[in-house]
Design goal:
It is a single chain. By secondary structure, the chain is of the alpha/beta class. The chain has four domains: 159 residues, Molybdenum Cofactor Biosythetic Enzyme, Chain A (3-Layer(aba) Sandwich), CATH 3.40.980.10; 46 residues, Alpha-Beta Complex (Molybdopterin biosynthesis moea protein, domain 2); 88 residues, Molybdopterin biosynthesis moeA protein, domain 3 (Beta Complex), CATH 2.170.190; 79 residues, MoeA, C-terminal, domain IV (Beta-clip, Beta Barrel), CATH 2.40.340. The protein contains seven helices and 27 strands. The protein has a six-stranded mixed sheet with strand order 15-12-16-20-19-17, with helices on both faces. It has a five-stranded mixed sheet with strand order 7-4-6-5-8, with no helix packed on it. Strands 21-24-23-25-27 form a five-stranded mixed barrel. β19 and β20 form a beta hairpin. The structure holds ligand LQZAQKY5 and molybdate ion.
């Protein structure tokens, strides 16, 4: 039996060939930036008004007040987008809109609410300090500064900044193209009615959703029979276009272990990992393509994804924090776990509240038993409870680690 860490390191090494690509911004959300991006322009690129109002010289409105407004001729109108802005002469005002360039000679903006809104001449009833309501060139980011550093996860704000500095593409770590293959002669797809002994296929649906959630492009081959020639015929022709194959089923100790039988000796190693669920696992390369072979039980598939594939893929994608958040929590029920195996139980975590006796530790209760077929219970879970290899009993009240599923 091999350890969770050993298998995880092997799976991570299998995927650690980052590919970078320049992509349109619209296709970068959630991905990781592969290189520093310098600001091509300053932000703001020019001094501009933060308010709809009047650009003035602050010295011209020093005396302005509600009872004694200062009247100035309005010499120009500057909507946002005007590129030929005339200079402001002493003793005059320019009507100006938010985002419009501040005319040279002006050093402040009086909001329209502090004026009578005139267009020929304007009565100004409040003074303005130098710099009032002016957004200075480079105040947000200076030209040439690193706007986004390599390793940044590109969310809406980061993509917005890239657009604002004039980028339409960014260099990103490219998620792999994955082929998901579910195996099992018992598997059928709706609308076919179930005959006794058959079940509806669900593993590939989970894997496709989980992989797409990481940005992977995913193809799928569902319900491959437990027959080695059938498996080869279904998968081999599709290897050329993919960076990773993820299979489910056919890896344990039975008489018809199609994935194990097809890939043993062909570059993929199979082993029992000291964990529950997700004991039987395989990984390696087949015709040079990385293969991760997961067991068939649905809960084992999802737990294996969480423990091995998700962190390995996030590492390959350059995420600074490939792992789920791990927090302590107090068990609300007694749990048991097999000796020598790390158990990942599906749980529901409630964070601590300020008034709680122990405000640092939340509560966690199991959802369903340890059986790796209990998928309905998984849908009620928001975390995995981790019981270490040397734990066989964890009574209610024990503080355990939980992985938050987000
Ligand atoms: N003698 C032993 N038997 C088993 C062992 C063992 O160590 N010795 N390990 C058990 C564990 S743990 C698991 S997990 C399973 C893994 O077996 P396989 O990977 O060979 O998976 P299958 O036998 O093909 O399927 C297991 C289970 O899951 C259902 N299944 C499979 N694929 C799907 C799918 N795509 N959608 C929905 N359900 C699926 C399948 O019908 C079986 O019920 O082996 C144990 N046995
Ligand atoms: O992967 Mo199996 O759960 O350990 O049923």
């Amino acid at each position: 039996m091999i350890s969770v860490e050993h298998h995880r390191a092997k799976v991570t090494a299998l995927l650690d060939r980052p590919v970078t690509q320049d992509r349109p911004l619209a296709d970068c959300a959630g991905l990781v930036l592969a290189a520093d991006v310098p600001a091509g322009v300053a932000l703001p690129p020019f001094d501009n008004s933060a308010m709809d109002g009047y650009a003035v010289r602050s010295v011209d409105v020093v005396e302005a007040g509600e009872r004694h407004p200062v009247q100035l001729p309005v010499a120009a109108d500057i909507p946002a987008g005007r590129t030929d802005v005339p200079a402001l002469l002493p003793g005059t005002a320019h009507r100006i809109m938010t985002g419009a360039p501040l005319p040279s000679g002006a050093d402040a903006v009086v909001p329209v609410e502090r004026t009578d809104g005139g267009t020929e001449k304007v009565r100004i009833s409040a003074p303005a300090d130098p710099g009032a309501h002016v957004r200075r060139t480079g105040e947000d980011i200076g030209p040439g500064a690193v706007a986004l550093a390599a390793g940044t996860v590109l969310g809406p704000a980061q993509l917005g900044l890239a657009a604002a500095i004039g980028r339409d593409r960014l260099p990103v770590r490219v998620p792999p193209r994955v082929l998901v293959v579910s195996t099992g002669t018992e598997l059928v797809l709706p609308p076919e009615p179930l005959r006794h002994g058959q079940i509806y296929e669900s593993n590939s649906v989970m894997l496709v959703a989980a992989l797409r959630g990481l940005g992977c492009r995913v193809d799928v081959v569902r319900c491959v029979a437990d027959d080695v020639p059938a498996f080869r015929a279904a998968v081999e022709p599709r290897l050329a276009g993919v960076d990773l194959v993820v299979t489910s089923g056919g890896v344990s100790a039975g008489a018809y272990e199609v994935v194990k039988d097809a890939l043993t000796g062909a570059g993929v190693e199979f082993a029992k990992v000291g964990m529950q669920p997700g004991g039987p696992q395989g990984r390696g390369r087949w015709h040079g393509v990385p293969v991760v072979a997961l067991p068939g039980n649905p809960v084992a598939v999802l737990v294996s994804f969480e423990v091995f594939l998700r962190p390995a893929l996030r590492t390959a994608l350059g995420h600074p924090d490939p792992d789920r958040a791990r927090v302590p929590a107090r068990l609300t029920e007694d749990l048991t776990s097999p000796a020598g195996k790390r158990q990942f139980r599906r749980g529901h975590y409630t964070p601590p509240r300020p008034g709680d006796a122990d405000a640092r530790v939340g509560l966690v209760g199991p959802r369903g038993g340890p059986g790796s077929h209990l998928l309905a219970a998984f849908t009620q879970a928001n975390c995995l409870i981790v019981l270490p290899e040397d734990t066989t009993e964890a009574p209610a009240g024990t503080v355990v680690d939980v992985l938050l599923l987000g």
